[in-house]
Amino acid sequence: MRPIIVVHMTVLLFVKFTNAQTTQQLPSDTFKQYNLPAFIVSAQKDPEYEKRYQKLIRDVKRAYPYAKLAGFRLQMLEQNLQMLPTEKARKEYLKKTEQAIKDQFYKDLVNLSVSQGKILIKLIYRETGKDAYSLIKEYRGNITAWFWQGLAKVYTANLKTEYNPVEDWQIEQIIKSMGFE
Q: Are 60 and 181 in contact (CB under 8 A)?
């Protein structure tokens, strides 16, 4: 009698602690679902829209690394300028830094298209919180900023352009979808 009880107890414990036959209920949907407004859905069906959007993706991919680097370099520049004791040392440091940036990026930035340049201006604002005109004015002076603004106007750009995540939602969407942030 005793061996039968031991066998039954062993079987009951074995059945109780095994979950081979139990099913777990999984969430019904594992993908994020977004409900887009009707105008976006209809625009995405337009082949001309798709062509412009693909161009925007290409332009953001090309300009974003430079904007990210500009934000980093500006932060380093401001930290280093605070540590320098005299105005003369700051001006010398600014000249050397500007020359180093020109040597490193001139060829790449000259080869940007006008639309990539406009996106770069917006993305610099996004990364630094300041428009390109203000940055030039702060570090190079009014006349230099005015000159570069005039040159940008020739190419239908504006150095005072600010980045607005609501208006520039496509750029923001591209940055997030590409995993840049």
A: no
Closest C-alpha among 163, 177, 100 to residue 128 = 163
Structure tokens at 101: 């940036």
Give the tokens for residue 76: 């380093």
pTM: 0.72
List of the chain residues with pLDDT < 70: 1-45, 181
Q: Give the pLDDT confidence score for residue 28 in this predicted structure.
A: 56
Please report the pLDDT score of residue 119 as a whole number. Answer: 94
Predicted local confidence at residue 40, as pLDDT: 60
Distance CA 123, CA 60 (A): 9
Tell me the Ramachandran region of residue 31: left when phi exceeds 0, alpha when psi lies from -120 to 50, beta otherwise.
beta
Q: How far apart are CA 155 and CA 67, in angstroms?
A: 19
pLDDT value for 178? 82
Count of residues in the chain: 181
CB-based contact 56:174 (threshold 8 Å): yes
C-alpha triplet 159, 164, 165: angle, nearest 5°: 140
Torsion (CA) 33, 37, 39, 42 in degrees, nearest 10: 30
